[in-house]
Amino acid sequence: MKKIIILLVFLGFSSTAIADEKYKYCEISGIASGADDGFIRSLTDRIMDKQSLSFDKVCSSVRRDSYNFGRQYSQGTNLSNADHLRWQKYQNYRDEVMDSIIKIVGY
After folding, report:
1. Cα Rg for the chain, rounded, in angstroms?
2. DSSP assignment of 24-87
3. How far apart are CA 59 and CA 54, in angstroms?
4. Is residue 19 very low, low, confident or very high in pLDDT (cuts 50, 70, 90)?
5. CA distances, 102 to each of 37, 41, 95, 106, 107 (Å)
6. What φ, ψ does residue 47 adopt, rounded to 5°?
7. What 3-state DSSP class applies to 23?
8. Which residues contact 29 (CB under 8 A, 6 or more apart)?
9. pLDDT in tens, 33-56
10. What is the reported pTM?
11. Short-list 61, 69, 101, CA closest to 85
12. Contact call for residues 66 and 30 (beta carbons, < 8 A)
């Protein structure tokens, strides 16, 4: 019985992680759009097209919410610690992309 409970708990967490990972680019695209970061928005939009998420209802909802968040945050609105973590996820992705480009061009 104990193993079954542990398995159910693990499956619950892993399906949440999979859902979060599936819509990762929807969130980043929305935040980038709200922050007027056209480069990252275009990049994530292309990734979403390849994943067939561009017209997904959940993705659209995530993007809309993330757009509003990105707009507020980029305008200096005072937000919570959780919001700072959400912004940091966008910043980390942006930094990874930029570092990869720099590496490709040889610097």
Report:
1. 16
2. HHHHHHHHHHHTT-HHHHHHHHHHHHHTT-TT-HHHHHHHHHHHHHHHHHHTT----HHHHHHH
3. 7
4. low
5. 18, 19, 10, 6, 6
6. -65, -45
7. coil
8. 40, 41, 44, 45, 48, 63, 66
9. 999 999 999 999 999 999 999 899
10. 0.78
11. 69
12. yes
Residue-level pLDDT at 83: 87
Sequence-distant (6+) residues with CB within 8 A of 18 are none
**Residue 44 tokens, joined:** 């994530």
- Here the tokens at position 75 are 């305008």
* Joined tokens for residue 52: 């067939």
Q: Helix or strand or coil: residue 105?
A: coil
Q: Could you give the CA distance from residue 20 to residue 23 in angstroms, rounded to a whole number?
A: 5
Tokens 């994943």 identify what position?
51
Residue type, 102: I
Distance in angstroms (rounded) separating the CA atoms of residues 45 and 63 = 10
Q: Which residue's structure tokens are 């993007």?
A: 63
